[in-house]
């Protein structure tokens, strides 16, 4: 041991005297604003916080904790893998990496010739997809790429270029050129955009998550599939939030009442049950070879530890019947919420649930944001607001009916605490 204590362990040990809020503000960049709480432990759909409270977690780390907190199978798999082989670089491969790729291709019913690229996050999966679309744009001489208003694809520069929200983009000046935004579900605008035969690709979330669980219509998605196919454009589904069982299907596109199998699909959030991992699926031989040898890469992507987290997540969703559970428990929540007076609309796809509050039900400037605080402080429950009147739920896929009933009781009680 060196005698110079550069990280100041002696001093850090005394920092306990400060509040966690002070420690956070003095050491973490302010991009997220102040955290709501300091969380300490978790088990299933429950987390305990710095005050020792048990909170019902109906957000699941924003659709990430597909199996809840500390699922025994994830704990066991990661412990074993950490003892065996944690990281190998992409100059080598590992069994978990290949096995997870095979499982994803099977779950997606991908045709012969389909392949997977592993990344570490949703943004990075979308970066890879965008680079593939840029390769197609180069090869075809087309100039435009389409994405949708209210969509969200991430914060890295490529993913941000595909994200419409001005508050996210404008601070950074020029982003990647040639990307245009269309109004979601506007079929006439979509058809008009393809008239010039100049579109290289279309990016969309089949259900817009950050927009408050807003679905694209089946007919709109079917038309998008037809137009992209007939105009030699790539259809890219960002299923970072909707994938891995969230909507009660392995992937949302499989729940659409038409064959809308995309050319490219991105995944992340629920894939690793909390371990960072993202993936790009390329459907068929042509999509699979858009990015050639040396044209993309990553240090960590698909390492054995992250890949085993993914593998164990998919195995557990299957063996515990969690697609069915997500559909059943989600429908139970939605039907109960439909009878709640302050609730104007519920959009429910498995355990991906958007709730619009009736604007006349409260005098608060942002009833949804007020309700997040009331729910946590008075009713010990984590929920999420995506707008002033819109809430989003994305609890673990193994949420039980009893836990759903606890949520419903606490939610209706929280609504009564909103200022009239
Ligand atoms: C969260 C999200 C992303 C970004 O994922 P990160 O892991 O935060 O980079 C991209 N697309 C969608 C639809 C998302 O919900």
Automatic annotation (TrEMBL):
Organism: Garicola koreensis
Catalytic EC class: transferase
InterPro entries xref list: Aminotrans_3 (IPR005814), Aminotrans_3_PPA_site (IPR049704), Class-III_PLP-dep_AT (IPR050103), PyrdxlP-dep_Trfase (IPR015424), PyrdxlP-dep_Trfase_major (IPR015421), PyrdxlP-dep_Trfase_small (IPR015422)
Bilayer-crossing regions: none
A Pfam family matched in the record: Aminotran_3
Organismal lineage: Bacteria, Bacillati, Actinomycetota, Actinomycetes, Micrococcales
Domain of life: Bacteria
Family under the similarity heading: Belongs to the class-III pyridoxal-phosphate-dependent aminotransferase family.
MF annotations from Gene Ontology: identical protein binding; N2-acetyl-L-ornithine:2-oxoglutarate 5-aminotransferase activity; pyridoxal phosphate binding
Keywords assigned by UniProt, alphabetized: Aminotransferase, Pyridoxal phosphate, Transferase
Protein name: Acetylornithine aminotransferase
Alphabetized NCBIfam families for the sequence: PRK03244.1
Cofactor: pyridoxal 5'-phosphate
EC annotation from Swiss-Prot or TrEMBL: 2.6.1.11
């Amino acid at each position: 041991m060196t005698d110079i204590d550069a990280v100041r362990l002696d001093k850090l040990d005394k920092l306990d005297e400060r509040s966690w809020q002070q420690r956070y503000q003095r050491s973490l960049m302010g991009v997220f604003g102040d955290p709501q709480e300091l969380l300490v432990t978790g088990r299933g759909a429950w987390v305990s916080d710095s005050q020792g409270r048990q909170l019902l977690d109906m957000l699941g780390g924003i659709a990430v904790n597909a199996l809840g907190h500390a699922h025994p199978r994830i704990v066991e798999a990661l412990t074993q893998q950490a003892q065996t082989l944690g990281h190998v670089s992409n100059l080598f491969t590992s069994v978990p990496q290949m096995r997870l790729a095979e499982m994803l291709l099977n779950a997606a019913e991908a045709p012969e010739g389909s392949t997977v690229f592993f990344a570490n996050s949703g943004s990075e999966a979308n970066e890879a997809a965008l680079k593939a679309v840029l390769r197609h744009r180069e090869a075809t001489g087309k100039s435009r790429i389409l994405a949708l208003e209210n969509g969200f694809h991430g914060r890295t520069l490529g993913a941000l270029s595909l994200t419409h929200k001005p508050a996210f983009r404008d601070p950074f000046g020029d982003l990647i050129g040639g990307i245009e935004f269309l109004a979601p579900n506007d079929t006439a605008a979509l058809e008009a955009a393809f008239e010039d035969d100049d579109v290289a690709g279309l990016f969309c979330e089949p259900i817009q998550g950050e927009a408050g669980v807003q679905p694209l219509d089946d007919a709109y998605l079917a038309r998008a599939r037809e137009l992209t196919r007939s105009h030699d454009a790539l259809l890219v589904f960002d299923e970072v939030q909707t994938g891995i069982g969230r909507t009660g299907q392995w992937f949302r596109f499989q729940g659409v009442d038409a064959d809308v199998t995309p050319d490219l699909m991105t995944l992340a959030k629920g894939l690793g049950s909390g371990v960072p991992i993202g993936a790009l699926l390329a459907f068929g031989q042509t999509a699979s070879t858009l990015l050639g040898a040396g044209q993309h890469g990553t240090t960590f992507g698909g390492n054995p530890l992250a890949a085993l987290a993914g593998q164990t997540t998919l195995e557990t969703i299957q063996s515990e019947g969690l697609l069915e559970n997500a559909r059943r428990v989600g429908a139970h929540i939605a039907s109960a919420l439909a009878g709640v007076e302050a609730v104007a609309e519920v959009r429910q796809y498995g355990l991906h649930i958007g709730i619009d509050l009736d604007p006349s039900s409260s005098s608060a400037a942002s009833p949804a944001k007020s309700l997040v605080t009331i729910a946590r402080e008075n009713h010990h429950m984590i929920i999420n607001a995506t707008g002033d009147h819109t809430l989003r739920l994305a609890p673990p896929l193994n949420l039980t009916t009893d836990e759903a009933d606890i949520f419903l009781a606490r939610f209706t009680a929280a609504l009564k605490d909103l200022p009239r």
